[in-house]
Task: structure prediction
Amino acid sequence: MYFEKDLIGLILARGGSKRLPRKNILILGDHPLIAYPIMESKKILNKVYVSTDDEEISDISKSYGAEVIIRPKELASDFSTDLDSFKHFIDETLFSGDILQLRATTPLVKFDILENIIDFFQKNKNICTSLRTGHETSESVYKFFIKKDIFWSGIIDNKNNIEFYNNPSQLLPKTYCPNGYADIIKTSIIKNNLLHGARILSYETEFAPEVDTPLDFEFLKFYFNKYYV
Result:
């Protein structure tokens, strides 16, 4: 167990969600989504908190052993930032250690992987400002476009008439998608009005499905039934 004065878990889970209503507490298997990161992290952490503005999320979280911090509605809007919610949590708890951030929308975490993530962070704590997890994208984002008016433009601007998006994948850098499996935040960095800082420690996980849309949730159920049941 990691002592709560040094490291705690935190899940930010607001009640409102436009694309997938009530997404944090949708039922997957026998439990709501938010229960999975609570149950797994409780195996290695003394304290796991949920920050929410929602009474039902609060009640469910408590039933699975989390402590709840009630977040004001103004910090739970579509435009609220994680940084503001972290500041509120620190102000409410006066916590000054490191925070393992988990997400109900990336529910399929495993306690042994969480433990490896924490150990990796602690070994490199003095040279980083935070840790974030991610998995390799199926295709390098150097092949992706952004839209400018009615035209496509490469993520990387063409230089010397080189169209990066037409290069073979083998010649392009690997790229990674941050997946929210488990990030580690330093409260000392938050006090500088930053969430992750300039030296983000990288921890690569296997593919981790995230939920933001109804289609995401349908895929999560398929993935869960195939690999977790």
In short: The longest strand covers residues 130-136.
